[in-house]
Amino acid sequence: MMILDGKKLSGEMRREIGESVLQFRLRNGFVPVLAAIIVGDDPASKIYVSNKEKACKEVGIESKILRLSGSARVEELLFEIDRLNTDSAVHGILVQRPLPNNCNENLILDAIDPRKDVDAFHAENVGLISQGRPRFFPCTPYGIRELLLRSGIETGGKSVVIVGRSDIVGKPMGLMLLQKGKGGDATVTVAHSRTKNLQEITSQADILIAAIGSPKFIKAEMVKEGAVVIDVGINRLGDGKICGDVDFDNVKEIASAITPVPGGVGPLTVTMLLLNTLKAAELIIKQTQVKV
């Protein structure tokens, strides 16, 4: 049984990204810039944004953090997004979720210039993924794809079951695994809360991806012998401990490879955001050169 160490891979990738950022700066005379907007005082969001800020500094990307109060009007948020869209010195934009209840999430996410949408939540970027010509991949599915590829786990011809149909993980992960070529060519089933005979479906998966936000939901009897198990969940138990959506201690006994929580998929999410930001800066440079 192989532990898929996302923390270790994240460190390796950040060193690669740092070198690429340095080369980018030497070629172009400036560094990529990521702007993040956080609305309100959600403690978890503050931690996530702080982690992203530290990660940017680690690889040489400049970060700009814009903080709005939880009582900010939607018009204020849209104004700031538009300002960042037109700022040629900003290459990547993200709006930290969750947003306050008064915000229409789709309206906000679609206001971001899709060329700067490094979270890849804009409808245009989702559509490009579905057509097999992605501009960016959403960060968590992107991290899972990279973890599978760099661990030598073949997806072509394999049965993959994704438990969870969120716009952040489940749906884009399915689209990515369906694409032709490396990291794709899988036969994909997306299961969810209305799926019948869930155990029968999950126990047929060569690769099982759990992304439902329910602690230790995936039990050993739901997993095929020798399956690869990817746990996306991060849940805090009553005693303060963190666990995933998979019953790790029991499932690891029958899986051929499994991600731990913490230290599995989580560290890669921010790393892929850095990679998307670098790519966004490179794309903007190319588009500027074409226009000239």
What does this 3D model show about the protein?
This protein is an alpha/beta fold and 292 residues long. It folds into 2 domains: 29-113, Rossmann fold; 139-266, NAD(P)-binding Rossmann-like Domain (Rossmann fold), CATH 3.40.50.720. 42% of the residues lie in helices and 15% in strands. The protein has 10 helices and 11 strands. A 6-stranded parallel beta sheet has the order 1-11-8-7-5-6. Strands 3-2-4 form a 3-stranded parallel beta sheet, with helices on both faces. Helix 1 (6-28) runs parallel beside helix 10, helix 2 packs across helix 10 and helix 6 crosses helix 7 (170-178). The longest helix is centred in the last third of the chain and has 26 residues, at 266-291.
Notable features of this structure?
6-stranded parallel sheet; single chain; 292 residues; 3-stranded parallel sheet; alpha/beta; 15% strand; Rossmann fold
Furnish the topology, listing elements before pairings:
Elements: E1 2-3, H1 6-28, E2 33-39, H2 43-59, E3 62-68, H3 74-85, E4 92-95, H4 105-111, H5 123-130, H6 139-150, E5 159-163, H7 170-178, E6 187-191, H8 198-202, E7 207-210, E8 228-231, E9 235-236, E10 242-243, H9 248-251, E11 257-258, H10 266-291
Parallel strand pairs: 1-11, 2-3, 2-4, 5-6, 5-7, 7-8, 8-11
Antiparallel strand pairs: 9-10
Helix pairs in contact: 1-10, 2-10, 6-7, 6-10
